[in-house]
Design a protein that fits this description.
Order of helices and strands: EHEHHHHHEEEEHEHEEEH
Radius of gyration: 25 Å
Helix content: 40-55%
Number of helices: 9
Strand content: 5-15%
CATH superfamily of the largest domain: UvrC, RNAse H endonuclease domain
CATH class of the largest domain: Alpha Beta
CATH topology of the largest domain: Nucleotidyltransferase, domain 5
Number of domains: 2
Shape: elongated
Structural class: alpha+beta
Length: about 350
């Protein structure tokens, strides 16, 4: 049952409870099996996230109060609540989502898809590509779970199925690795390390290592390599030294993928040093694009992959690049200040 409150919630009720309480709301059913409806709702929630708590108005729409800050519901942490409990989602957008959920549960697949396609087109025309991509994933997932061959498996992982943007980025990046490297199709992409060099005219150089695990930064695993053996500008040698030292620490864990800030030259310097068997790719600038070394035997040595600005895989690489740059620059600043004080 979906209640007809100002901000509706989804409730599961037995027939006897409905007769006794006579609640106001949209009643769907009856369903022959409580197990099946529970499984259907698990799947539906991943496509049309909803909240078990009443919707909180967005701050700009809400009158100031002295009440305590709202706490996120359990499902928010699973990416199965759009932030209704925190005032993150606009009430009109949330209600639209609930209406699509009702249509979906009534079996009105065509009506839902038509509305979503219209919305996706509108967002694309307004150049809101990230939101349009999320709608596209909804459409793909609806088509997938309504196939005749689809079995009721709510824990099945599909591209973007109940996944956050980060998780979708990992999935898309894994597809790229499968296409252009020897990455095994069934291997999960878990640990990514990003590297960047920071120095001015070779002075106080530092190379950063930042770590993303399952699409989320693991700051406990971040490392810094101070470079004192070189005092002239040479990013390639600095990177080679840092990665040589990195391989002396297998106890830190081994990466599934390395992303370096730079193009072919930076990648070449890494490959001359790196002996562990995992892919190494670069992210070059202006425009941002992925540089992927191809396996031996290819007529070309590198695949230059220019993705759309809102592509989830590119966003993952950009985040690693930006975070490694920030971390390296911070260490360079510390070393620079320390050097000035010791003069």
């Amino acid at each position: 049952m979906i209640t007809k409150e100002k901000y509706p919630r989804v409730l599961r009720k037995r027939k006897t409870d409905l007769i006794k309480e006579n609640p106001k709301g949209t009643i769907l059913g009856p369903f022959q099996s409580s197990y099946k409806i529970n499984e259907v709702l698990k799947i539906a929630r991943k496509i049309f996230p909803w909240c078990n708590k009443p919707l909180v108005e967005k701050p700009e729409n809400k009158k100031p109060t002295n009440s305590k800050p709202q706490k996120a519901c359990f499902y928010y942490h699973l990416d199965q609540c759009p932030g209704a409990c925190l005032g993150i989602i606009d009430s009109a957008e949330y209600l639209e989502n609930i209406e699509n959920l009702k249509l979906f549960l009534r079996g009105k697949k065509g009506a839902v898809l038509k509305q979503l396609k219209n919305k996706m087109s509108l967002l694309s025309n307004k150049q809101k590509y990230e939101k349009a991509q999320l709608i596209k994933l909804q459409i793909q997932n609806i088509k997938e779970v309504t196939k005749k061959t689809y079995r009721l498996r709510p824990n099945l992982v599909l591209p973007g199925f109940g996944a956050s943007q980060q998780e979708q980025g990992i999935i898309e990046l894994q597809k790229i690795l499968i296409t252009y490297t020897h990455w095994p199709k069934n291997k999960k992409l878990e640990r990514i390390e990003g590297y960047d060099v920071s120095n001015i005219q070779g002075k106080n150089a530092a190379v950063s290592m930042v770590v993303s695990e399952n699409g989320k930064p693991n700051t406990d695993q971040y490392r810094l390599f101070n470079i004192d053996s070189i005092d002239t500008p040479n990013d390639y040698k600095m990177m080679k030294e840092a990665l040589t030292r990195r391989q002396n620490h297998p106890e830190w864990g081994r990466p599934d993928l390395i992303i370096v800030d730079g193009g072919k030259g930076q990648i070449r310097s890494v490959l001359q040093t790196w002996s562990w068997r995992n892919p190494v790719i670069g992210i070059a600038k202006n425009p941002d694009r992925l540089i992927i070394p191809l396996p031996e035997g290819n007529s070309e040595k590198y695949k230059i992959l220019t993705l759309t600005a809102d592509h989830p895989a590119l966003k993952i690489a950009q985040q690693l690049r930006d975070e490694s740059h920030r971390f390296a620059k911070k260490q360079w600043g510390r070393r620079h200040v320390r050097g000035m004080l010791n003069k």
